[in-house]
Amino acid sequence: MNKDAKATILVVEDDPHMRHLLKIILEKNLYKVIEANDGDEALACLKKSSDIALIVTDIKMPQRDGMELLKTTVEKYPDVKVILITAFGEMEQYLDAMNMGAFEYLNKPFKNQQLLDMVKLALKS
Q1: Which domain holds residue 93?
Q2: How many domains does the chain have?
Q3: Computed over its alpha carbons, how large is the radius of gyration of the chain?
Q4: N or C terminus of the chain with fewer C-beta within 10 Å?
């Protein structure tokens, strides 16, 4: 990874192609990326690394889903911001996520720049 890397981001996505795409987008913009397949793996990563500043997570996943990951992250790792992404966006779920402490909620498909703008905002706040 580039020595000028900006921050460490944990990408949590059960679809390996989408996870790889997110990793490429973020690494091209000098972010260090750690990958996890689901919420349980993500929590194990959080326990191991204190460098994680942001989580970008899918909502619908096996094991622990994105909403459960959000809840646990807010409780145990309050300094880590969470951006939720989903292909099944519903207003009620969006409101629940925001009330639980999500930084933002992005609907798939989204433009790469939308994600990058959201990441920059989350890391500044």
Answers
A1: 8-124
A2: 1
A3: 13
A4: C
